[in-house]
Design a protein that fits this description.
Two copies of one chain form a homodimer. Chain A is of the alpha/beta class. Chain A has two domains: 210 residues, 3-Layer(aba) Sandwich (Rossmann fold); 81 residues, Rossmann fold, CATH 3.40.50. In chain A, α6 links the parallel β4 and β5. In chain A, α3 crosses α8, α5 packs parallel to α6 and α8 packs across α9. Chain A is globular, with a radius of gyration of 18 Å.
């Protein structure tokens, strides 16, 4: 059953056309060494090569371009210290409108610089959720900017859904697609697109054990946010959004969890065998596949490599 | 003037067809952030994604396949602790013949394992050139295997020349192509192919200051091997081969040198902006370009990223 509030295939296809000039159609890579090890055929969709280094460029671009002419002029705002902040700053700047980014004063200098380099205007806040939300409310109040949330937003989900759309355009008969899950924008979008195009293909979420609210929520059939998530996969520490959880409950087959040790092993395998750079969050789906080999044996599996923004001086190996 | 001993364009094209089933036609990547910084359009030929993680797979494959039926049965041999050893082991195993690899006992365990994983039979020797050569002579004497040198060999050069052949098949009108230079197999092959296909395109060698025998030899118009090279670019410490120097003198426009600091900066730029893994030697051409920006301003430059085999626990940043 498709709730009327979920994006349709047409919505997602239109989003694909809408944002095409602002993003890369990223390549799909394969690696025979990892295939041998995994016992299946893996197709890696390389969003680590995406603009701003992560799939977040898609949702941010779509959200900015979906604004009404009137709202657009006043700009956009968000609170984030991660890839969404950089992605929104870039999308807004490309559209010629301001982006107001609320960041905790404790955010690393390199992340502040990234947002600034994409043209974002930073307002610092205390590193608490209360301060973030209060500061964002002030900024929105003062500027009239539209708040673009990082994942719990229909236009953001539509944008993230275009990643799977590109995968399906390659005409690979995926038996399953595995995506990492944090807030659920990418996993939700992937599940929607895949449901419309190939309903028999399983879409599976992969999550760190230390931030397994999606796994728990999926089992319990109700949202169970985590208060103290802890994992090296720093892009997946957020809890599922409401809309995201609705989509995931409906269209995702399973959520698999992995330990940080398994994440680091998979990350190292990608570095050594594929010679590409991924952030820890990005290695979670491969870790989940390798932990559950028998389930995927001999099959064609799509894996979304979600991003490549990692502090090279702090690699876990 | 083409000396009759140099491979012809037909030789190189035949090599391309001969080895096609054993290697990847590697992708060419671009990066708008690095282009802005450099002030020109750069096309990166990604041999770091090549089989065994380096362009060496090409020359080794061609040398193995060029053996006579009679010689082939007895196998191949070489002394090397680097990418050539792994490449030769893999090519021989694929051809169903033995590969005898002489390696210094001091070689890192990981390199020995790589050679073994490709099916190479290792004979250890003392870590001196004399011991390497004596041990290799013994192995060849005992087995009747054919010695395949890492660069000073016409069939190896022919194989490396297929890399530029693939670049030219993309119909990009390169103003210049920059390749790293160690023994001169890749640079020589690149220069030959480019001379035949686009004689007005400059082919430039890039070399570490601490191992600048190609630069010195090129200036002096005679080979000046180095006795104590020293650079982070550990794949470029060897001195030019004889045949390689002949080709380079004839068809290379210039040799540019860079410091280790400049190599590390370029390497970091490739990691952070392109999200791909390269070994230090591989970053030398970009370092040379960035050091000589004015020379390349507004032009279309091909850069060969030669390999991606790096110890991730020892990154210089």
């Amino acid at each position: 059953m498709i709730t009327s509030t979920f994006p349709t295939l047409e919505d997602i296809q239109e989003a694909g056309v809408r944002i095409r000039h602002m993003i890369h159609n990223t390549p799909i890579l394969t690696c025979s060494a990892i295939d041998s090890l995994a016992g299946c055929e893996i197709f890696f969709k390389c969003e680590n090569f995406q603009k701003v280094g992560a799939f977040k460029a898609r949702g941010a671009a779509n959200a900015v371009l979906k604004l009404s002419e009137k709202d657009r002029k006043k700009g956009v705002a968000t609170h984030s210290s991660g890839n969404h902040a950089a992605a929104l700053a870039r999308a807004a700047t490309q559209a010629g409108i301001p982006a107001y980014i609320v960041m905790p004063s404790s955010a690393p200098q390199i992340k502040k610089k990234a947002v600034q380099s994409y043209g974002g205007q930073i307002t610092l806040c205390e590193p608490t959720l209360a301060s973030r939300e209060a500061t964002l409310a002030q900024v929105v109040n003062k500027t009239g900017a539209t708040f673009i949330p990082p994942f719990d937003d229909i236009h953001v989900i539509e944008g993230q859904a275009t990643c799977a759309l590109e995968m399906w355009e390659e005409h690979i008969p995926f038996d399953a697609i595995i995506a990492p899950v944090g807030g659920g924008g990418l996993l939700g979008g992937t599940a929607l697109t895949t449901h419309y195009i190939s309903p028999n293909t399983k879409v599976i979420g992969a999550e760190p054990e230390g931030a397994d609210d999606a796994y728990r929520s999926f089992q319990a059939k109700k949202r169970i946010p985590l208060s103290t998530p802890n994992s090296i996969a720093d892009g997946l520490l957020t809890s599922l959004g409401e809309l995201n959880f609705e989509i995931i409950q409906e269209f995702v087959s399973d959520i698999l969890t992995v330990s940080d040790r398994e994440i680091i092993e998979a990350m190292r395998l990608i570095y050594e065998r594929m010679k590409i750079i991924v952030e820890p969050s990005c290695a979670v789906p491969l870790a989940a596949l390798l932990k559950n080999k028998e389930q995927f044996h001999g099959k064609k599996i799509g894996i979304i490599l979600s991003g490549g923004n990692v502090d090279l001086s702090k690699l876990p190996f």
